[in-house]
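re: the backbone from monday

yeah here it is again, tokenized this time
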């Protein structure tokens, strides 16, 4: 055997033992012998760097240091999941599904693992990259760290598609978590709070050999890509197992929602015997073709539904109610609680939402209250334990003045929240608006963080976002924790934000009710800030999905002299206040006023591209056929009931080619 053969043989052998031990739970070598072979391989690799392999089992021990995790755009977006809490929710979901797809629907039921989501990309059987979910569009490249997790195959076995993404969850099993905490306490360090946060924190450690020491596991649940040769979710789980991934065996096929509920009821109890945390069940339409028909909403697939296990509850004392002022001036009451353990974390605060909520539940300082943690991060108060109410307790008087600037609060008709109207002078509003402007989804200004914004405002250097563009390094350097280099970064970051596209600038302006999606819609329709500024409420509500509430808020925003001035200044600094020419070039109004339904499989464009084409040309895409539908664009394998419905309603049917010709 020559050296290369020897290295190859060792790598193969170690891979096999690794698989047997971590995936099959069936050791085929002693730890000691494994170590010896690993050291042998390490020595050979060191002596022969020409045989380097980025996926060698020796990389499992880590060693690579990552200073800054590179941001990577996901090829396929990582969606969130819609939640359900009852049989009724699931039945409603089924009703919605059945309107959109043909034939029987089967479901794959899986456990919902509670950890950190990860997307792994494989090419020719090799792990190419591992990216965190991030905001779903883009995440951090954490490949070096992920390679140290033994349940992540570096080299696949058997048959595998040439290229695909596989999604899963990095979890920290209880046993390992407890052991880690014992070691930390022994070393005089603070214990970690819960396995999930520890797992997600681990992915961002700079030293991969530290990650290697943590007993993390990767549980896989979804293969994404094209030409995968699989037709159902259940099959894809099996396929993933065959390729060498760890896919828990709990997954089951169900033929009805009743069978789904059986699965849920079984695991609601049985989950307490699992080695890792689960917070529910994920139900997925099994047939991938049906999944494709159902598609996605802005946030989540229509073909999947999470069922959350009932939240845990505890009771504790409410010590004090305090009030926070948000960037829009909205007041949020906060319950400060006697710290209590709940679902694995220590809870000290809970949101009280608004004055009505406090009144309805008659919540008072000093009360013993029931706290629950559901799907959301901030726990909530469910009820007061009136039997334990103190004798001298007094009803809660909601504040009348802003806790930050003492201005009298206002409450708009029909709104639950109180607002501080001191738009220009209330510090959390002034600071919050600028913080929103620079945030990742808006202008994403590198080198400038929320705390620095607060310092800049408090130091009188800026009072609104347009002032950012006149900052100089000399002004910034004297700030706390600011060195020359970081000051320069800040100024450069501000400069770079002039390239950020209009829709994100519009989102960044912080107009109430204008979130990311609405900003996109407005930008697309009006194309420039000038056009938007002149729009009347009537003009605005004619835009698809823009209602009166948003329209009024937009008009109000531009009616303020201050806001108009800020915008004029942004303009003078060349911030993008209109849709760029390149983007306009690909957009027309050809399909204006027409509603399309797209169904089937297409040849020259993907379904997603087809939908984008329709929208870019002013048309609207709808998911189900009704009398309002203008055209049905039909691809291959289109569902027969859709076809029939279109025929019954006399809706013209276009082939892929006919549609594309129409556009030209
Ligand atoms: P949420 O974060 O509540 O929107 O839920 C979505 C997340 O659930 C996904 O990003 C996954 O990380 C996670 N998840 C856990 N188990 C599964 C599963 N079996 N199928 C799909 N997603 C899962
Ligand atoms: Zn105020």
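seq for it, each position gets an aa:
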């Amino acid at each position: 055997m020559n050296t290369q053969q020897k290295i190859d043989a060792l790598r193969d052998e170690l891979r096999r033992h690794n698989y047997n031990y971590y995936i099959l739970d069936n050791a085929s070598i002693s730890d000691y012998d494994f170590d010896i072979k690993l050291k042998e391989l390490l020595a050979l690799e060191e002596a022969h760097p020409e045989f380097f392999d980025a996926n060698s089992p020796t990389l499992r021990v880590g060693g690579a240091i990552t200073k800054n995790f590179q941001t990577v755009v996901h090829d396929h977006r990582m969606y969130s999941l819609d939640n359900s809490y009852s049989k009724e929710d699931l039945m409603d979901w089924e009703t919605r599904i059945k309107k959109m797809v043909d034939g029987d629907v089967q479901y794959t039921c899986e456990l919902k693992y509670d950890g950190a989501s990860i997307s792994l990309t494989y090419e020719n059987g090799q792990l190419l990259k591992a990216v965190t979910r991030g905001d779903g569009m883009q995440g951090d490249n954490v490949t070096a760290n992920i390679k140290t997790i033994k349940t992540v195959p570096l080299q696949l076995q058997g048959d595998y598609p040439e290229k695909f993404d596989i999604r899963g969850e990095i979890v920290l099993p209880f046993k390992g978590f407890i052991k880690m905490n014992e070691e930390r306490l022994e070393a005089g360090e603070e214990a970690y709070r819960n396995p999930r946060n520890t797992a997600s924190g681990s992915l961002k450690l700079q030293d991969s050999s530290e990650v290697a020491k943590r007993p993390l596991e990767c549980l896989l649940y979804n293969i994404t890509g094209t030409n995968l040769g699989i037709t159902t979710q259940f099959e894809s789980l099996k396929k993933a197992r065959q390729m060498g991934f760890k896919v828990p065996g709990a997954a089951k096929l169900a033929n009805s929602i009743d069978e789904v509920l059986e699965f849920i009821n079984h695991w609601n109890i049985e989950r307490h015997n699992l080695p890792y945390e689960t917070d529910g069940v994920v139900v997925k339409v099994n047939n991938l073709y049906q999944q494709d028909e159902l598609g996605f909403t802005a946030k989540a697939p229509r073909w999947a539904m999470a069922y959350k296990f009932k939240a845990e509850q505890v009771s504790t004392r409410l010590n004090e109610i305090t009030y926070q002022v948000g960037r829009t001036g909205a007041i949020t009451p906060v319950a400060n609680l006697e710290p209590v353990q709940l679902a694995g974390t220590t809870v000290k605060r809970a949101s009280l939402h608004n004055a009505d909520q406090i009144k309805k539940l008659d919540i008072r300082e000093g009360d013993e209250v029931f706290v629950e943690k559901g799907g959301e991060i901030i726990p909530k108060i469910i009820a007061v334990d009136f039997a334990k109410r103190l004798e001298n307790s007094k009803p809660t008087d909601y504040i009348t003045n802003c806790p930050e600037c003492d201005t009298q609060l206002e409450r708009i008709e029909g709104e639950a929240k109180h607002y501080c109207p001191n738009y220009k002078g209330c510090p959390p509003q002034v600071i919050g608006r600028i913080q929103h402007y620079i945030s990742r989804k808006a202008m994403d200004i590198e080198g400038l963080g929320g705390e620095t914004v607060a310092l800049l405002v408090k130091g009188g250097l800026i009072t609104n976002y347009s002032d950012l563009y006149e900052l100089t390094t000399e002004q910034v350097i004297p700030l706390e924790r600011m060195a020359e280099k970081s000051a320069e970064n800040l100024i450069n970051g501000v400069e770079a934000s002039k390239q950020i596209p209009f829709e994100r600038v519009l989102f960044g302006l912080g107009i109430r009710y204008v979130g990311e999606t609405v900003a996109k819609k407005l930008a697309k329709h009006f194309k420039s800030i000038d056009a938007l500024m002149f729009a009347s409420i009537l003009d605005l509500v004619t835009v698809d999905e823009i209602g009166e509430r948003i329209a009024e808020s937009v008009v109000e925003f531009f009616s303020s002299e201050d806001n108009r001035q800020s915008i004029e200044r942004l303009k003078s600094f060349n911030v993008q206040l209109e849709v760029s020419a390149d983007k306009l070039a690909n957009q027309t109004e050809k399909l204006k006023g027409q509603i399309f339904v797209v169904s089937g499989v297409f040849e020259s464009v993907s379904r997603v591209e087809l939908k984008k084409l329709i929208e870019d040309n002013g048309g609207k895409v709808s998911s189900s056929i009704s009398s309002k539908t203008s055209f049905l664009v039909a691809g291959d394998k289109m569902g027969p009931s859709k076809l029939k419905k279109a025929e019954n309603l006399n809706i013209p049917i276009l082939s892929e080619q006919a549609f594309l010709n129409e556009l030209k």
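The first strand starts at residue 71 and ends at 73. The pocket of zinc ion (ligand 2) is lined by residues 325, 402, 404-405, 407, 420, 422, 426 (CB under 6 Å).
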